[in-house]
Predict the structure.
Amino acid sequence: MRVLYSFPHRIGAGRICYTAWQQVFGLDAAGAEVLAHPASVHRALPDSVKVVRTLSRGRLRVPYRAIGQLRALIWHDRIVARRLAPLVGEIDLVHAWPLGALATLEEAKRLGIPTVLERPNAHTRFAFEVVAEECERLGVTLPPDHEHAFNETVLEREEREYELADALLCPSEFVVKTFRDRGTAPEKLVRHIYGYDEGEFFPAAEVPRSGDGLTMLYVGVAAVRKGLHFALEAWIRSPASQDGTFLIAGEMLPAYGEALGFALEHPSVHVLGHRTDIPELMRRSDILVLPSIEEGFGLVCTEAIGSGCVPLVSDACTELCRHGENALVHAVADVDALQAHITMLYEDRALLARLRAGCLETAPAVTWKAAGVVLLDAYRTVLAGSHEARVSQAPAYAARPAVPAEPHATG
């Protein structure tokens, strides 16, 4: 399998840049021949991967902030598109990323090269709409340049990319649903997963004692779409807040922080800001909370699973979190259910221990190496043109969470 991997950002940096970096490593380990075309490189890729940068040379990089991010992404896209013709017969497939793919997809179609487009989040129109509704409800105004502030130019470009790609790579059933609901043909939606680095995320040698207060952890940018406000309300209403600790690790939008001010001042809540010791925080915590209203995969869920930190998540998050087996899952915005789940684990440490054991059983199937194998299989599915079962035959580990009508202890 010969893949041109086009990534319009600084591969190996944070967030999606880290995801792309791990994908390339996973593909290489799975046996793919990868030709990487990143805008620039933050962390080195495998020696066996040929890297051709588009917007950097040596230590010099195009300054995205100075010229505007969208303009930089378009430059990258056009450069990769111009490089395709000489590669006909040398590559089997192009893997592109959003907003840096339009010209590439058009040229690949003209040349007859199959294409896949990464979908690290739900359908962008859906994301814009649900975030706008929740911001209005909370009285929070997003900055105009915020990634989830409505932007017609961005939306039009992304929706055109959706149309041109031969397949959309969806890391969760939630992402699949948001595209199906907007008319995307099911055969165009191909499942894969993200993973975690088992060298960084692993369980603590000693499990916290049952008499200790519960420690709950939130990791990631504290944004409206991640539902931190639901987690705070549920936590404070739960008896766990009386002698437990809620750690919030991540940057916070100032307007959102102001809206949450009263809850953030609770004595059990500790706002840590951006942290670089997330693996250790997960090992020290009993549960991870992620009550998102919109999600692509919830990468922190796999990292928590690998660390033996039990996820408490909304049903917008990855189906790797299976209710009553390795997690507790609630419906989006159901604060009562989330409160009940926190309380259950506070009062029933045997249930917490069973769910933790379920996490550690799940972990080997969701590493980045495993994700690379799944992604390579997704490529083969696209090339083989086996459309009928792409969505229905999700990866074997991925069972959809059963969210109970009423919260109850399971296990």
